[in-house]
Predict the structure.
Amino acid sequence: MFQRKWAKHWREESVKAGLFLCATVSVLTTFAIVWILIREAGVFFQDVAVSDFLFGTQWTPLFDPRSFGVLPLVCGTFLIVAGTALIALPAGLATSIYLSEYASSQTRSILKPVLEVLAGIPTVVYGYFALTFVTPLLRAVFPEVQIFNAASASIVVGIMVLPMVASLCDDTLRAVPASLRQGAYAVGATPVEVTLGVVIPSSLSGIMAAFVLALSRAIGETMAVTLAAGATPKMTMDPFVGIQTMTAYIVQVSLGDTPAGGIAYQTIFAVSALLFVITLTMNIFSSHLLRKFREVYE
Amino acid sequence: MISRSLTYRYWFARIFHGFCFVVAWAGVVILGILLFHVTCEGIQWFDLQFLSNFPSRFPEKAGIHSALFGTLWLMGFTALFSVPIGIGSGLYLEEFMHKNRFSRFIDLNISNLAGVPSIVYGMLGLVIFVRWFGLEQSVLAGSMTMSLLILPVIIISTREALRSVPNTIRQAAFALGTTRWQTTYAHVLPAALPGILTGIILALSRAIGETAPLVMIGALTYVAFTPEGPMDDFTALPIQIFNWASRPQQEFHELAAAGILVLLLALLMMNSIAVYIRHKSEKRNP
């Protein structure tokens, strides 16, 4: 009897320990990411001053005269993000308004899976779509558009993050209590006045959280911008010319024949570290906003 | 707004409704255009030869044999690593851990990991698995990187599935004197299984299309053999598609489209399985 109890206890504790080990993997992953980025970027920053890297406006690490100013890559990334925001945020919000305020449950059951499929399409497919469909279309309308251009990449990244904006905003809008809507209808508001005047303002922090998360996704997007936006780092706000994003640069170096260990190669770790810091900040900001929203309604 | 006439207000309401309707259905139209475009471009190359040939610089001889097998190997090992660890973490976090400051830290940690760009996971795989573990560009290095990438997705969906199991089931089991693990293993886990499986399939369908981490760890773009073990070099479908799409010739773009068709078919298959499981479990406990 005592022995069986002991065996039971022993099994219970060892299972618990095993499951705990599984859970530590994700914590270790986080520490490993931070640690390798600091370590490898540290090698880079031994040769290049941090201020030269962050505020320099020339990015020519692979050929002479070498210059390690990351701003052209940041500028390229933010050009893509701006284009994405222009498309995905209003369209995503409008879709979520349709889903939560207007659509019947039957329509929802058709639209939601379609959006899920749209969200599940691999990014390399979107890159192909940009290159072979969107770019030719743009060039037919605006002849001055280059083969590789930021506009086409922004459009597909916009399509890519739209489902995410729509589904996150939909969750937020549906969390707004029905009593608020009923109150507005009771004083004679039209549907649009209820939506824009009551529902949206009361779920603003949740919507903002969705927006920030979607833009952070756009910053980290890699294959679509590598295929469609080109590989020429430059400081421009012209969406019709080729640019290079931070992620596309990392891919370019790892596909090319840059010898590992040299300063040119170490740049990818510095750029990744910057990418990681930017996206992490945005994600934390987004979850902070979402927490504020939840505090009000849940 | 109040001073405006009623006619105007109702007119505006209708316009806004119409606008939201058009935007929402535009997503469906775009999906249709995308699928139509890919099919039109790729269907002429989509035949048995395409599936059985190795890549080649002559478009008419090129195929995805090695990429297809590479993807199968990669997915097999990714599932092998990520499924037990993911379910284990989910079980620990949801069923065994007390809610305290440490649990909040892990919560925050996992949701942040889910938002890390996939290319950063590629850097992690490059430094740790490829260089330190000395795994080179092997299937093993690729699938370990992929596992870390989809682990947060599996953990989050496992926890959601566990949370949806009613507490009465646990209490009934405890009342009969079972230990926590017996309760979890025999009662909670079976009840949560459909949800967990759905989450795993969706996570794997994300992994099957991921390209950036594989590019980072240096998965080869030209491989004229199929892997025979976990230590062999490999290429994968999305890498092959990327390689073809980044070439200037029209023929290779069409080959990329044919490759995309194969990838989308695989995704469709996985998604239908997930939908089927969800549907079946909803029928059982409505």
